[in-house]
Amino acid sequence: MTAHSSPIQVVRSVVELRAVTRGWRQAGDSVAVVPTMGALHDGHLSLVAQARDACDRVIVTLFVNLTQFDRPEDLAKYPRTENRDRAVLEPAGVDLLFMPGVDEVYPPGFATTVSVSGLTSGMCGDFRPGHFDGMATIVAKLFLMTGADRAFFGEKDWQQLQIVRRLAADLNIPIEVIGCPTVREADGLAMSSRNARLSPPDRTAAPALYAALTHAAQRLRGGEDPAPVLEAARAEILAGGFARVEYLDLRHPQTLTPLDRLDGPARLLAAAWLGPVRLIDNVAV
Ligand SMILES: Nc1ncnc2c1ncn2[C@@H]1O[C@H](COP(=O)(O)OP(=O)(O)OP(=O)(O)O)[C@@H](O)[C@H]1O
Ligand SMILES: CC(C)(CO)[C@@H](O)C(=O)[O-]
Ligand code: BAL
């Protein structure tokens, strides 16, 4: 698709966003959206690259969505690097950076929540109360605000991706949701904005999560019984220096139904705490 070298347009209001996208549509351009909370890394940039390959116009949204944070300190400490984010997006072929303020997104009197049932039960849904309602509400709003044809999400947030697919289908939002592979550091750690909060020793320990998931997936593919394999993976994560494993689940990739044996495609998903930082990851089995 068309490569754009013109400077990125920063838009903060929905009225202006709609005016710009209306012009694009009149010109027959297809539109991609990449929703983010900023503190951009190469994982985000891979979503942008895939969006640029697929559509004529690319919107990146940057909004630290307060309603999806279940712990006030997590919101307070969430990394914010707006100027750097803007500079990183400039050469990446992004047409528009949508950075609304809180009042633009949640004006006084705001009273609507998008709540997806089923897929939000278990895993992050159990340990982060209200998180997926906040996430589903902002994602539905961003889809409607941008009117994009395609949206790009990372597989790192696997449960989120399945929820987003469901809400787009259930609300008849005409957008194609595209999942993009997890981008990793050289040692296997999934890139994440929260990695910036790891202390140097915790950063050294962090790849143990992906290593344990990878070993477990190999054993499962080799036909071993899931229960002891999952138990060994938990032990490996703790031995690697993590303080606590929040969940380590074998699930159907799309329905997220828990699996106690492997009789088809499956996903192994985990969340674990390293000091004050909670990391998530998942692998195909
Ligand atoms: N390593 C990665 N590879 C591919 N996509 C990613 C990666 N990390 C995040 N994403 C995707 O980028 C989008 C925006 O995510 P977000 O801004 O929350 O970044 P994050 O690094 O996941 O931060 P957090 O620390 O909140 O998990 C989401 O669709 C997310 O799945
Ligand atoms: C999709 C998202 C940008 C909504 O705030 C967020 O959940 C994220 O960064 O994955
Ligand atoms: N990357 C998912 C957004 C969140 O953790 O709140």
From TrEMBL:
The keyword Ligase is annotated on this UniProt entry: yes
Sequence positions that bind beta-alanine: 68
GO terms of molecular function: ATP binding; pantoate-beta-alanine ligase activity
Keywords: ATP-binding, Cytoplasm, Ligase, Nucleotide-binding, Pantothenate biosynthesis
One Gene Ontology cellular component annotation held by this UniProt entry: cytosol
Pfam families according to UniProt: Pantoate_ligase
Superkingdom of source: Bacteria
Chain positions recorded as ATP binding sites: 37-44, 154-157, 183, 191-194
Catalytic activity: (R)-pantoate + beta-alanine + ATP = (R)-pantothenate + AMP + diphosphate + H(+)
Pathways per UniProt: Cofactor biosynthesis; (R)-pantothenate biosynthesis; (R)-pantothenate from (R)-pantoate and beta-alanine: step 1/1
Subunit comment: Homodimer.
Family as reported in the entry's similarity comment: Belongs to the pantothenate synthetase family.
Note: The reaction proceeds by a bi uni uni bi ping pong mechanism.
UniProt cross-references to HAMAP family, sorted A to Z: PanC
Annotated protein name in UniProt: Pantothenate synthetase
